[in-house]
Every structure is written in C-alpha cells, then in structure tokens.
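About this split. The held-out portion is used to measure sequence recovery: a designer receives only the structure tokens and must propose an amino acid at every position. Recovery is the fraction of positions where the proposal matches the reference. Here is one held-out target exactly as it appears in the evaluation file.
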C-alpha cells in the first residue's frame, strides 16, 4: 500500500482487485458518525487517491452495520461557538464535495444501515451509489436548525428533481434505500447481502476498462455539478452562518439533550 495512506487513522484501505482501492470508514463513534478527525480525512483523501497511479477505481464503504450517521454533534456544537473551528469545518465540507467531483478515478459507494449528513454526501456524490433496500437515509440539517448545505443543493435536484429534493431537504424526513432508488437519488438498491459484492464487481469493471475514456466521461458528466458550484458555495455559507445563530445552537442543544427544539423566533430573510 502506498505510504501516502499511512497518515490516515479513521480510514482503512484494502484491495479487492489489484487496481481497486477500497476505503472503509472506521469510526470510534456509534453508528459510524464522523468525529473531527474522520471529517478531515474524508475531505483530504481524494487528492491522494487521484495521484496514486496504482489505483484505477475506488470503493467507499462503512465498517460494521452502518455507512455513516453524519457528523459528531458534540463537536459540531463546539463549532457553533468557535469561529476558527467553524471556518475549518466549512473548508473541509467544501473539499469533500469538490474532491469527489474532481477526482478523476471512478468512485463506487456501498452503503448499509444509516447514511446521514456528511455520510449521505459521500454516498450520493459517488459515480455509482449502491445501498441496501432497508438502509436509512436523512439529510437531517433542518432537524438541528441549520440550512441544508453540504452536498444537497448541488446534486439532489439533478438526481431526483426539485419536488423530491425540496420535500426531503425541507422536512428532513427519513427514507429507505429502496425509496432512494425509486426516486433516482442513488444508482441502485439491493438486498443487504448483495451490496458489497456488487460494489466490487462494478469497481473491478471500471478498473479493467479504458482508464482515459472512463475518466473523461466522468469529467464531462460532472460539468453539470461544477456548473452548480455557485449554488453549492451559497448553501454552504448559509449552513455555517446558521450554525453560529440562535436556531443552530438551539437545534443542536435540543438534539443533544433529546428534547424538542423551541424555534420561537422569526429570523426570516
């Protein structure tokens, strides 16, 4: 394995095919939630993989029963009060999205269990996204009183249409992998036992295919996403502005204390 991967502590690496790098999200937190270290690592890995000549395709999967239940709210609550940490988290969120879009190697994701927030971003920003039928997804931002930023506005309307995007992003409702498949938010849903092998099969097909043709096809298709870059930047800024505001702080406090939030003031634009 290339030494450039030695510095990662929350990501595990193996090779199910000689030219396929499988990245396993290995979190110390419940349900695969991302601590600050993992959030940084998933924002940085794409440049290392892109520069690795031994890799032709990538798989991202979760360790255990879940993909990733999103960010660690205990850390994110600290981010609300600390400007420097907030700007760093925003930079990482931006690098995660742009890193996956601009990585020249095809990316396949394999999700079982929960995928929320940044975990959901990793899942659906892939070139091919696979999930178990009974996987559970939620964008979740509105539940904690902040605007839906991260990946959502740059890709959801393109994948599933504006009507579904508005419904699930503005309600933060939970939905299954089968429902995500039906509304075209992911590439396919399968029985749980089939997900990992299907990801290996597809990534191996990419690795055995014409690398230049595959990478230029991905680059051309992702021009649709790069074209929406200003929308993404605006949504990300609004998300992190909200983190420092009363709704974000109240929403996170309520969630951590397992009580209903009290959004009793109007901060409308």
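Reference sequence for scoring:
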């Amino acid at each position: 394995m290339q030494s450039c991967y030695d510095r990662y502590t929350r990501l595990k690496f193996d090779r199910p095919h000689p030219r396929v790098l499988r990245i396993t999200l290995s979190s110390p937190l419940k349900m695969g939630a991302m601590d600050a270290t993992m959030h940084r690592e998933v924002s940085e890995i794409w440049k290392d993989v892109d520069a690795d000549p031994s890799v032709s395709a990538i798989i991202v999967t979760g360790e255990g029963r879940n993909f990733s239940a999103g960010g660690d709210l205990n850390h994110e609550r600290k981010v609300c009060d600390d400007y420097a940490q907030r700007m760093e988290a925003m930079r990482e969120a931006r690098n995660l999205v742009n890193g996956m879009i601009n990585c020249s190697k095809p990316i396949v994701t394999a999700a079982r269990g929960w995928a929320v927030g940044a975990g959901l971003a990793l899942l659906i920003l892939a070139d091919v996204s696979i999930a178990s039928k009974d996987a559970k997804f939620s964008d979740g931002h509105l539940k904690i009183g902040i605007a839906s930023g991260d990946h959502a506005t740059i890709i959801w309307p393109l994948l599933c249409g504006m009507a579904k995007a508005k419904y699930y992003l503005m309600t933060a409702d939970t939905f299954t992998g089968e429902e995500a498949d039906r509304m075209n938010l992911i590439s396919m849903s399968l029985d749980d036992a089939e997900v990992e092998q299907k990801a290996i099969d597809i990534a191996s097909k990419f690795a055995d295919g014409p690398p230049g043709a595959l990478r230029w096809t991905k680059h051309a298709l992702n021009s649709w996403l790069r074209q929406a870059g200003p929308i993404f930047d605006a949504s990300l800024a609004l998300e992190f502005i909200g983190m420092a505001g009363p709704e974000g702080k109240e929403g996170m406090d309520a969630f951590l204390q397992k009580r209903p939030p009290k959004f009793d003031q109007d901060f409308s634009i």
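Annotator remark: The first strand starts at residue 11 and ends at 17.
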